[in-house]
UniProtKB/TrEMBL annotation:
Classification via Pfam families: ABC_tran
Gene3D superfamilies in the cross-refs: P-loop containing nucleotide triphosphate hydrolases
SUPFAM superfamilies: P-loop containing nucleoside triphosphate hydrolases (SSF52540)
Keyword terms of this UniProt record: ATP-binding, Nucleotide-binding, Transport
GO molecular function, one term: ATP hydrolysis activity
Protein name (record): Phospholipid/cholesterol/gamma-HCH transport system ATP-binding protein
Signal peptide: none
Residue ranges of every copy of the ABC transporter domain listed in the record: 23-280
Superkingdom assignment: Bacteria
SMART domains: AAA (SM00382)
PANTHER family: INTERMEMBRANE PHOSPHOLIPID TRANSPORT SYSTEM ATP-BINDING PROTEIN MLAF, PROTEIN TRIGALACTOSYLDIACYLGLYCEROL 3, CHLOROPLASTIC
């Protein structure tokens, strides 16, 4: 799939210069037990952009995601979310910022003792949203992920793919300004993975929500980059003329360092030996 892009015309890339940044890392480093995990990481994600994060296992991708959500603090450098430096914010202020962020974990992180409805509505209950309004919003979120029929079920009754879809519904329930997808297709079969990627695409193209997405599957990454969600058919379709989605870009990490930061065409056209081997 990546090879096909090399022979296709380059899409006109939208300038990010006039777009406000939603996520900005500036020379961020963090180590555990004196072992560097991320070293001098710098990148910017603008409003409406989807940033796919690739790289070998153990390269610091999930740590980067936790830094973006304020769950970890860097040893050095600054992290700005929605234009605000969160590096040294008190936990109570971080909690307020997280209200604008949706998080999808690889393991779904659902409460087995709560129904699907109560799992999806968890944040709304914390915010004391009236029950009738919360129910309506849960139904809307479950319809978005095509799972409204499971509203009264419990997580142990669901397949892995269904649990992941519930996790996405929970992430979007508060209409976040930023969604962090930490390996949303991890551990799923290829067909189910494609279903999850289609939901990420739907959120990108219908709601235009800024997002970061970690994936270990190159096929998922390029499916997201080369297709667009069609609201009329409710399915994803290839972008005409071999194009790519202009709002979807890539960040590649290796051994805790950024080895690539750019567009889809720049990635597949790179002559860097390590990147070419990784993509092959």
């Amino acid at each position: 799939m990546a090879e096909d892009l090399l022979t296709r015309p380059n899409s006109t890339q939208q300038s990010a210069g006039d777009q406000p940044s939603v996520v900005k890392f500036d020379n961020v480093s963090i180590a555990f037990d004196r072992k560097p995990v991320l070293e001098e990481i710098s990148f910017t994600v603008v409003r409406g952009e989807t940033r796919i994060i690739l790289g070998p296992a153990g390269g610091g991708k999930s740590v980067l995601m936790k830094l973006a959500n304020g769950l970890l603090r860097p040893d050095s450098g600054t992290i700005r979310i929605f234009g605000e430096n969160i590096t040294s914010l008190p936990e109570r202020d971080l909690f307020k910022r997280r209200a604008r962020i949706g998080m999808v974990f690889q393991e779904s992180a659902l409460f087995d003792s709560l129904s699907v409805e109560d799992n999806v509505a968890y944040r709304l209950h914390e915010e004391h949203v009236p029950e009738q309004e919360a129910h309506a919003r849960v139904v809307e979120a479950l319809k978005f992920v095509e799972l409204e029929q499971a509203i009264q079920k419990f997580p142990p009754e669901l397949s892995g793919g269904m649990r992941r879809r519930v996790s996405i519904a929970r992430a979007i329930i508060s209409q976040p300004d930023l969604i962090l997808y930490d390996s949303p297709t991890g551990g799923l079969d290829p067909i189910t993975s494609t279903t999850i990627v289609e939901l990420v695409m739907k959120q990108r193209d219908v709601s235009h929500t800024t997002s970061l997405m970690i994936t270990h599957r190159l096929q998922d990454a390029f499916t997201l980059a080369m297709n667009r969600f069609n609201p009329e058919t409710g399915k994803m379709v290839p972008i005409p003329d071999g194009g790519v989605d202009e709002s979807t870009k890539f960040l590649v990490l290796n051994e805790g360092k950024v080895v690539f930061d750019g567009t889809t065409h720049e990635l597949v056209s790179s002559t860097d030996p390590w990147l070419r081997a990784y993509l092959s």
